[in-house]
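Reference record:
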Amino acid sequence: MKRTRIAVGVLTATALTAGLTACSGGDDVNGSSAASPGTSAPAPSGTGTGAAAPATDTPFGPACSAVPASGTGSFSGMSTDPVATAASNNPVLSTLVSAVKQAGLVDTLNSAQNITVFAPTNDAFKKIPKGTLDKVMADKETLKGILAYHVVGQKITPGGLSAGGFDTLQGAALTTGGSGDSYTVGKDGANVVCGNVQTANATVYIIDSVLMPPK
């Protein structure tokens, strides 16, 4: 991942909200609610089929061991919460959750349906120089665009990552590749370190690098 440049040409908050199914309210992660029945995020064009998916449809990958075995932050607990709320209970995603709050996207993500989120770990954010990260966190529109580049408006199965091409909510395409329980995401090859995590409204793939939209 090229860590020294941050893309600044991103969509506006209005465009992002149009891409996801938005809801009203504030940015309280635990206070957000799921969308009403019948609402869904658009399904952008995307392809990706693969014969070599993991043997089970349970979460897979080395970072899965960091997820609590029980409670709200466990896989079982996360499956009953919308994605932003579920992430807030996962100890490896606290920096991502702070970014989502800062961008004002908690309710938007929690209200969308049938989406896929590529979620960078805390260590992924640490790869970005602190000065650069602080600058991005302070620029709400840039931050929204980067986070939107991690969201696809359709659910993607592990097999679908094998040779996939998906339109993100930011607008740019995102490619994936791999097989078995080893997958990469984006042009710089972020690794899926805990995949196929289910929440009430999304499939989550936890990754080891922050994805940067193309200029």
About this structure: The first strand starts at residue 46 and ends at 47. The mean pLDDT is 81.
